[in-house]
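Supplementary Note 3. Input sequence used for the single-chain structure prediction.
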Amino acid sequence: MKAAIRTVLIIILLLAALGGGGAWYIWNGMQPEEPGQPVTFTIEKGMGSSEIADLLEENGIIRKGLFFKGYLKWVKEGSSFKAGTYTAAPGDTYDALIARLNAGDVVKKATVVFTIPEGYTAKQIAEKLAAAWNQKPEVFLKIIDSGTGLEAVSRLGIPEDSKLRHRLEGYLFPETYELVKESTPEQVVEAMLEQLEKKLDSAGGWQAKLKERGLSLHELLTVASLVEREVVVDSERPVVAGVIYNRLDKGQKLEIDATVQYLLDKQKERLYEKDLKVDSPYNTYRNEGLPPGPISSPGLASIQAALVPEASDYYFYVTKKDGSQGHLFAKTYKEHLANIKKSQQN
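The predicted structure, written as discrete structure tokens, is reproduced below.
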């Protein structure tokens, strides 16, 4: 009898020892690792909480992935962890790790910030991008000329026309951008096209307005680019857009200096008679209608002006010479000649 009691007591003591040892093992396994240097790790899209726990153990951030899995089930976490590249250090608590993974507190990638001013041409944009990414301008200009492989090109319906100097001219929205340094030249150009899409959508009902005027997006951006290069004073943009449409409706040549300047290697303060005779489909002194495409990247104000021009009877305008950069507008050629004389007296 005494032997049986002793055996039972020994079994109880052994179970208690095992239970205590197991509890200690679990408790110890859930403690933070000894503090150490931060470790970078990446959670791929589609990874579950179990895989993430194993990843944390493999990187020495936690002691036992098994216990982290159990803890996640206990606190009902792990379903909202976000993919990305993180840094964490041995010594971080379970709760701290969970909060970071839920928040998507990923490592910030190095970025490049660059600004494309309104009215820049494709060539100027290529040079700007080349400087920002330490590349040759030709790398970007090749993409701008072809548009090959860019998804936004088909969405925007950008035409492929041999008369165009640069296929994406006018479609690269002028803006300040901050892009990941690892971006490829194609991704950079794509981002600029996508920005144009966003800006067009912000204009509201632009497709209906185009349909009402019987214009394509390409024609709209062409008009907007003319406005951009001709006008400095914002309030005059809709007026100049109206003049352009008036002349188009009457079948008159636009005779816009900016289209000739676009063809020159270097901008001139003043165009001469020989400049106006240059043989090009972009020369609106020689050809009726719009040029084959935009001559620059118009800003939102010029795009809106082209969408909603100011109705008037004006067919002519001349720049004031008083430093205001404004214009004098005229309904007839006779009035226009008087305005030219007037502007020269300022």
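Residues 204-345 form one domain. Confidence is low (pLDDT under 50) at residues 6-10, 12-18.
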